[in-house]
């Protein structure tokens, strides 16, 4: 079965309700306070080269207020106690990111001036710990639907579907944008947003619908 057919089959199954619920959560996040956006930014820093499940636990434990007020050592200790990778680096990245704790007006302004791609470029350039994947993840989680989160699950599935020849060892800007165009082409063909396709493809590889 082709990847498009697999996604269509999921869209016609009970998984659709879970996917639509998650998409609704992302949309609601767009109208929330800036500290909630900053919490999502910290979550996405935590997900880099690490499991999303433990990143979710850490985010719930620290909370939006904690990401803004905990000491760097306290953040590190929570990350470490959850057996999450790179506790030293990630605690430092989160602590340094507080320069942009009031991030909502900045992102809103960037999107208005230079579109979602411009906002993503700013995030990659200015927030330590964010690459294109993590910056895209953050933007998706705060309600922007047209960027691709090219994690290992999505890349592996794209290779299996012959959308790409191989999974790259690293994703620089040029490679990321080239693969993203193929992902967006699939989404357009299915008449769905990149966010919706991402959730279905992630489910195909993991059996889960996470954020």
Given helix and strand content, the structural type is mainly alpha
- Domains, number: 2
Distance between the termini: 26 Å
What is the number of strand segments?
A: 0
Share in β-strands: under 5%
What global shape is seen? globular
CATH topology type of the largest domain: Endonuclease III, domain 1
Q: Provide mean pLDDT, rounded.
A: 96
Please give the CATH class of the largest domain. Answer: Mainly Alpha
Order of helices and strands: HHHHHHHHHHH
Task: Specify the number of helices.
Answer: 11
What would you report as the Rg, rounded to the nearest angstrom? 17 Å
Low-confidence stretches: none
CATH superfamily of the largest domain: Hypothetical protein, domain 2
Biggest beta sheet summary:
none
Features:
Endonuclease Iii, domain 2, Endonuclease III, domain 1, 211 residues, 71% helix, mainly alpha, 11 helices
Task: Give an overview in words.
The chain is globular, with a radius of gyration of 17 Å. The two termini are 26 Å apart. Helix 3 (34-47) packs across helix 4 (52-69) and helix 3 (34-47) runs antiparallel to helix 8. The model has no long low-confidence stretch (mean pLDDT 96). It has two domains: 3-27 and 148-206, Endonuclease Iii, domain 2 (Orthogonal Bundle), CATH 1.10.1670.10; 32-141, Orthogonal Bundle (Endonuclease III, domain 1), CATH 1.10.340. The chain is built from eleven helices and no strands. It has helices at residues 3-11, 15-29, 34-47, 52-69, 72-81, 87-97, 103-126, 132-141, 152-160, 173-189, 194-206. It is mainly α and 211 residues long.
């Amino acid at each position: 079965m082709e990847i498009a057919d697999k996604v269509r089959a999921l869209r016609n199954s009970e998984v659709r309700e879970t996917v639509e619920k998650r998409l609704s959560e992302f949309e609601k996040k767009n109208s929330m306070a800036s500290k909630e956006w900053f919490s999502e930014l910290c979550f996405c820093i935590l997900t880099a080269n690490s499991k999303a499940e433990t990143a979710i636990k850490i985010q719930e434990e620290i909370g939006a207020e904690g990401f803004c007020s905990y000491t760097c050592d306290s953040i590190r200790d929570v990350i470490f106690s959850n057996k999450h990778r790179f506790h030293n680096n990630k605690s430092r990245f989160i602590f340094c990111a507080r320069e942009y704790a009031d991030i909502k007006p900045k992102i809103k302004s960037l999107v208005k001036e230079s579109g979602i791609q411009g906002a993503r470029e700013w995030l990659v350039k200015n927030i330590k710990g964010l690459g294109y994947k993590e910056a895209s993840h953050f933007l998706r989680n705060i309600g922007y639907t047209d960027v691709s989160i090219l994690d290992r699950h999505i890349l592996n599935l794209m290779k299996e579907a012959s959308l790409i020849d191989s999974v790259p060892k690293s994703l620089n800007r040029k490679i990321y944008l080239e693969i993203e165009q193929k992902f967006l082409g699939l989404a357009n063909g299915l008449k769905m947003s990149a966010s919706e396709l991402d959730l279905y493809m992630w489910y195909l590889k993991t059996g889960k619908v996470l954020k």
